[in-house]
Amino acid sequence: MPKKILSPVSRIEGHLSVEVKVKEGQVTEVRIRGEMYRGIENIVLGRRPLDAIRIVQRICGVCHEVHGIAAARAVAQIYGVHPPPNGILLMDIILALHLTCDHILHFYQLALPDYVDFSVLTSYRGSDLLFRQLRDWLAVKRPFLLLKKALGDYIKDPKIVSSFFAHYIEALEMVAKGGQGLAVLGSKAPFSHAVFPGGISSDLSADRIAKVESITQELYRFVKTAYLPDVKRLARLYPAYFRLGVGWKNFLAYGGFASLGEPLFEAGVLISGHRQPLSAEKIVEHVAYSYYEGEAKPFFEEDTRPRPKKPRAYSWIKAPRYDGHPVETGPLARIWFSKEGKSRFLACLKELGYSEKEAFSVMGRHLARALETELLLEFVLKALDKLDPAGPTITNVNPEEPVSGQAYALSNAARGDLLHYLEVDRGRIRRYQAVVPTTWNFSPRDENGLMGPAEKAIVGTPVAYKEGLIEVGRVVRSFDPCMACSVH
Ligand code: NFE
Ligand code: MG
């Protein structure tokens, strides 16, 4: 059977290759290879817990706030410190604002070029102002990936392309604005250095809160008038993608954004259609097909070492399993466990002529991500209102205190939910484990031979174009993978 390889996969973070076997125009077998090793969990060994927050934050430049916040939440338990109300709110606000920018960037800059042939704008002779502006922009900037002639079932109608492209440009401005908001609250962006176990070290003022509120309003307007309508428009143009990229239909979500009382997302696990309560002890990382020496163990006992030439292995990504099951994490899983989110999601599916059955799909993931962005911005607006500009933002800890203990935090990231675990012995880190969204979604087979969620979603995908694996790329990007995170 002929093998086809998509490598390197562009418009994602890091080094990923997808190898498929195709029979009668459909993928019958797949291997997802994470092609690099990072080892940041090892770098923090022997260091102080507070240093871990800054170091593990560097796991990724895309989700630049999420690892610092997850680490701070775990380290807080080691010190037994509780942030003041402002600190708890600020951590959620920073996380939510970051997630929204990440989602907007994912849709316009990473996913949309899978469907839209922007190069048609360069040759179109339309006379209206928007066309001319966009054509001139392309002529000056010449973004290579956008101008590559696209062969395949791309949108080529210049009217539709130009409206998507106008939002493509606006999305970049929105992400930059969101970054300003993050910097106002967290001292800088990317990589806030104000995140500590006891809260946020930068102080508040009424004008800072007002500045972030006005940025959030702008983002919200963009989501309501561009992002959400554009996702729906794309979904209408590509109905087949409500049946493609289905996967195991298993979900994992840790819950989150509870600083206003009712959590925005609830914790939960969905296995074979049945919802179960979450128990973190059931999270086990397998390495049978990963380049590591060691055995499948729960995250708090994990003891693996890299082994680059391991026979049978094909990926640097480990294979986390929940109670033995491959599970998908991400905005779709989170929205499934959010009362308000799920009702908006189902209403949106209905508006497009679909039902719950089509939720597990490429377009289901894109819709869920856009609706999650709307929910998160509404959350930020409410949370900003609850901040007390005169109140403290942090409870300080003594970094030299010889603390000992073990703790894990269940936190959130744009691509799914995130666990950080650490053990500390007299002020020094003895063990550090992160179990990361893309590790779940892009895992290879486990010791029972079960494929990872994205692998499962790719099997059955049609391959209609000799020149590339367009359809496979669309399934891959619907998960918004980040390889730096996955191999941390
Ligand atoms: Ni590098 Fe990250 C984490 C993943 S999600 S992007 O955690 O996977 O924002
Ligand atoms: Mg890990």
Keywords:
alpha+beta, 16 helices, 3-stranded antiparallel beta sheet, binds NI-FE active center, binds magnesium ion, globular, 42% helix
Topology:
Elements (H helix, E strand, L loop, with lengths): L2 E4 L9 E8 L2 E9 L5 H4 L5 H8 L9 H14 L5 H27 L8 H4 L5 H13 L2 H4 L10 H29 L8 E2 L2 E2 L5 H32 L13 E6 L8 E7 L2 E3 L6 E4 L5 E2 L3 E2 L6 E2 L12 E4 L8 H6 L2 H13 L10 H25 L18 E9 L2 E10 L2 E8 L1 H5 L11 H6 L11 H9 L4 H5 L1
Helix pairs in contact: 2-3, 4-8, 4-9, 4-12, 8-9, 9-12, 11-12
Bound molecules: NI-FE active center and magnesium ion.
NI-FE active center binds next to helix 13 and helix 16.
Write down how many β-strands occur, each being a DSSP E stretch of 2 or more residues: 16
How large is the share of residues in beta strands?
A: 15-25%
Percent of residues in helices:
40-55%
- Give the helix/strand class: alpha+beta
Largest sheet: 3 strands, antiparallel
Oligomer: single chain
What's the helix count?
16
Low-confidence stretches: none
Distance between the termini: 34 Å
Mean pLDDT: 95
Q: Hetero groups bound?
A: NI-FE active center, magnesium ion
Spatial order of the strands in the main sheet?
1-2-3
- CA-atom Rg in angstroms: 22 Å
What global shape is seen? Answer: globular
